[in-house]
Amino acid sequence: MRSPSHSVLPARALRAAVVLALAVGTATFAPAAPAAQAAPAARPGTTAPAGATTPGPAAKPYMGWSSWSMQSSKYPGLNPDGDYSYLTETNVLKQADALASKLRKYGYEYVNIDAGWWRDQAWKPQFDRYARQKADPGRFPRGMKAVADHVHAKGLKAGIYLPVGLEKEAYADGRAPIRNAEGCTTADIVYDDLRTTNGWDSAYKIDFSDPCAQKYVDSQARMFADWGYDFLKLDGVGPGSFKSGDNYDNVADVAAWQQAIAATGRAIHLEVSWSLDIGHAADWKKYSDGWRIDTDVECYCNTLVSWENSVDDRFDDTPAWTRHAGPGGWNDLDSLDVGNGAMDGLTKAERQTYATLWAIAKSPLYTGDDLTRLDSYGLSLLTNREVIAVDQGAAPPAHPVTASDPQQVWAAKNPDGTYTVALFNLADVPASVGADWTTLGFTGKAAVRDLWNHENLGTYRNRITRALPAHGSRLFTVTPRGTAVERTGHEAEAPANTLGGNASVAGCATCSGDHKVGNLYLGGSLTFTDVVVDRPGTYQIEVAYLSGDARAADVSTNGGGATRHTFPATGDWSTVARVHVPVTLKAGANTITFDSGSGYAPDIDRIDVPKTF
Fold first, then answer.
1. What is the pLDDT of residue 94?
2. DSSP string, 206-273
3. Distance (Å, rounded) from C-alpha 579 to C-alpha 223?
4. Angle formed at CA 21 by CA 16 and CA 26, multiple of 5 degrees
5. Are 452 and 387 in contact (CB under 8 A)?
6. Are residues 143 and 278 in the same domain?
7. Which pLDDT does position 284 carry in this prediction?
8. CB under 8 Å to 35, separation ≥6 — which residues?
């Protein structure tokens, strides 16, 4: 979301309402490397043939700075000349200089200018004679090329922004000519009924059945390339951005931009935003270098962000997207605002947890902080080389290995056989969180290194547990010294199992045994029978399930009391994911029940019970 709003947004539901009112912009989870997928087509700005693997501008998640967090905040002094007034050439270059001196050596390189560069302080736009956005002389008196030149002189890369579609003010009664497209005007590139598009309905939808439309996008891309920009954020893209339907399907726009960027011969990173439809993940992966998976992280309040506004939402919304990220395209969790202390609006524990999730999810690391006044703790978070290496390394993104309960464990297997393991306490009170080695696939001993504190913690048998503050976290590298865990599998559709309520067996091409148990809602239940173990104890059972959205189930053993666990969304009802839940079993035969209670539970494929604990 990149548009003026005068509302304070204390909750996600209110953010959604405000977004709609804005005038203009803003398989499985198993740790198998995304790089093993089919080779992607050439990325924008490259010349590799389709089907060839190429690094492109998104070989790794990008790192840098973005202007929007400070533009959108009501923190005292940030926008003294009115809302969104922070965006000026002077301020951008000040941040570029600070990025170069403080963060460039750690990998931060992009200086990204967000919404408003072509609009004055009253949000009135400027366009050239070809209906292309033109720098507002009040904000950027030397124009956008001069800004890019300054950024490049610092050894950095320059980024710029556009909302998707033809902005209404650029239409000019349909008479504006399209550059290098004889006979084409703005009337030719949009639908005759002037249907609107993007997350704010601030633009007319472009009709790409007319060749003039591609020429318009080509002219914009050529302009940015001539100015020297290395990054373009295309915002308000649908399906998604809280909009659906044909008007808001901008896949053709993104494809046109990829084509236009490639034609310039300049390697320009194309990022699409915001809160995109996961059902079109294949399109975002095909035509762009990165995609926002969630709403704005900013709170539009008197700080940059707040924990409850949407920082914490990423724990719910990221898991379904994890399998889609890899070299060539990354899941964008939005700005990482952890460097400015009170201005960030977070506790120290929350700042570290925020940075931990971004790193293990392999999100782009771009901060929206004021780089001229980073505090020492914020600087230590942004410049921790071991944590940056997690984000930039060859391992796949981490995924939850436990249920999405207030205490969670996320992990990824690294190419060298080690594991990146994060512990999270998302509760509002302190709690202990433990990572059991069986959830990683081995038993016995393991060496543990604390990445935030650069400390070898020694050897731990079977698990590591830490007391964490409210919203706290720890981040480790775990090196196995034990043996692979052995498990016994139990299919949900096995005839001996007991189904209750509406629960029923259904076909499932992606499931083990080609079947699953679904319709677990409003009292529906599934009981696995004859689950045999040799010794009594608490076992971390692996649950293979499918769930288009996050759903919970009451899990119990042997008819005893149940514990409710939330299963992260898998993104659709054909993708199988796996998480672990603890159950207490007796020696010999046991039953394990999944009950929807009064709500809706995920579909269950199978469970795998370790032979040891």
1. 98
2. B-TTSHHHHHHHHHHHHHHHHHT--EEEEES-SSBTTB-SGGG--HHHHHHHHHHHHHHTS--EEEE-
3. 48
4. 75
5. yes
6. yes
7. 98
8. 326, 327, 394
Token digits of residue 85 = 């007034």
* Interior/surface letters 283-300, b for 16+ CB within 10 angstroms, e for the rest: bbbbbbbbbbbbbbbbbb
Task: List beta partners, residue 565.
Answer: 553
Q: Do 53 and 37 contact (CB within 8 A), yes or no?
A: no
Decide if 502 contacts 568 (C-beta within 8 A). no
pLDDT of residue 36: 29
Residue of 27, 25, 1, 24 whose CA lies nearest to 14: 1
526: domain CATH number is 2.60.120.260
Q: Which amino acid is at 149?
A: D
Dist. CA 263–CA 1, nearest whole Å: 29
pLDDT of residue 64: 98
Distance CA 549, CA 546 (A): 9
Cβ atoms of 375 and 381 within 8 Å: the answer is no
pLDDT cut 70: percent of the chain above it: 91
Q: Are residues 474 and 360 in the same domain?
A: no
The sign of the torsion formed by the CA atoms of 482, 467, 471, 404 equals positive
> What number of CA atoms fall less than 13 Å from residue 454's CA on the CB side?
8
Helix H or strand E segment including 63: strand 63-66
* Rounded distance between C-alpha atoms, residue 66 and residue 290, angstroms: 15
* Overall domain count for the chain: 3
Using pLDDT thresholds of 50, 70 and 90, give the confidence band for residue 55.
Answer: low
In this predicted structure, what is the pLDDT of residue 43?
A: 36
Same domain, 167 and 110: yes
- Its domain, for residue 450, covers 400-484
Check the CA dihedral 51-57-60-66 and report its sign: negative
Positions of E strands within 492-562 = 498-500, 504-507, 515-518, 525-533, 537-546, 551-557
Q: What are phi and psi of 66, to 5 degrees?
A: -130, 145
Spatial distance between the Cα atoms of 285 and 328, rounded to a whole number of angstroms: 8
The answer to whether position 34 is within a domain reads no
Pairwise CA distance, residues 318 & 333, whole Å: 8
Q: Which residue type occupies 256? A: A
For residue 203, how far is the Cα from the chain centroid? 26
Contact (Cβ atoms closer than 8 angstroms) between residue 590 and residue 560 = no
Amino acid code (one letter) for 322:
T
